[in-house]
Automatic annotation (TrEMBL):
Annotated protein name in UniProt: Ubiquitin-related modifier 1
Source organism per UniProt: Wickerhamomyces pijperi
Cross-link (Glycyl lysine isopeptide (Gly-Lys) (interchain with K-? in acceptor proteins)): 103
Residues where 1-thioglycine is found: 103
UniProtKB keywords: Cytoplasm, Isopeptide bond, tRNA processing, Ubl conjugation pathway
Pathway: tRNA modification; 5-methoxycarbonylmethyl-2-thiouridine-tRNA biosynthesis
Record's subcellular location: Cytoplasm
Cellular component GO terms, alphabetical: cytosol
Biological process according to GO: protein urmylation; tRNA thio-modification; tRNA wobble uridine modification
Location (main, coarse): cytoplasm
Record flagged with keyword Cytoplasm: yes
Domain of life: Eukaryota
Post-translational modifications reported in the UniProt record: C-terminal thiocarboxylation occurs in 2 steps, it is first acyl-adenylated (-COAMP) via the hesA/moeB/thiF part of UBA4, then thiocarboxylated (-COSH) via the rhodanese domain of UBA4.
Lineage of the organism: Eukaryota, Fungi, Dikarya, Ascomycota, Saccharomycotina
Family: Belongs to the URM1 family.
Length: 103
C-alpha cells in the first residue's frame, strides 16, 4: 500500500530539491504486509528526489537525517514520534529544516 505525503524542505534545503520547498509524493510500498515507516521515506527521498549525488551528504549522514536538520512529523519533533520507525500515514506532513548556515 502506498502513502501520500507532503514534504517541506526549509532553511535552505530546498536548494537540493530543485529550489522547491513543498512536494507532494506518493511513496510506494515494497511489501503490502509491512507498513511504510519514515526510514522508507528517507530512502525514497535519496533514491528519487536528490538529483546530484553530492547533495546526498547534505541531507544524510550515517544512513539517517544529518544532525542539524530539524525533522518534524505533523509539526511534532520526530524524536517524540519514534524517529525512523514512525509509521507513515497518508496525509502526513514531514518537514525538514536545516539549522546549519554557512558564513
Amino acid at each position: 500500500m502506498s502513502v501520500n505525503i507532503k514534504l517541506e524542505f526549509l532553511g535552505g534545503l530546498d536548494v537540493i530539491f530543485n529550489s522547491e520547498r513543498y512536494h507532494k509524493v506518493t511513496v510506494p510500498s515494497t511489501n503490502a504486509s509491512t507498513p511504510l515507516i519514515l526510514r522508507d521515506l528517507i530512502k525514497y527521498i535519496v533514491d528519487n528526489m536528490i538529483k546530484d549525488p553530492k547533495d546526498i551528504e547534505v541531507f544524510i549522514e550515517n544512513d539517517t537525517i544529518r544532525p542539524g536538520i530539524l525533522t518534524l512529523i505533523n509539526d511534532t519533533d520526530w524524536e517524540l514520534e519514534g524517529e525512523e520507525e514512525y509509521v507513515l500515514e497518508s496525509g502526513d506532513v514531514i518537514s525538514f529544516t536545516s539549522t546549519l548556515h554557512g558564513g
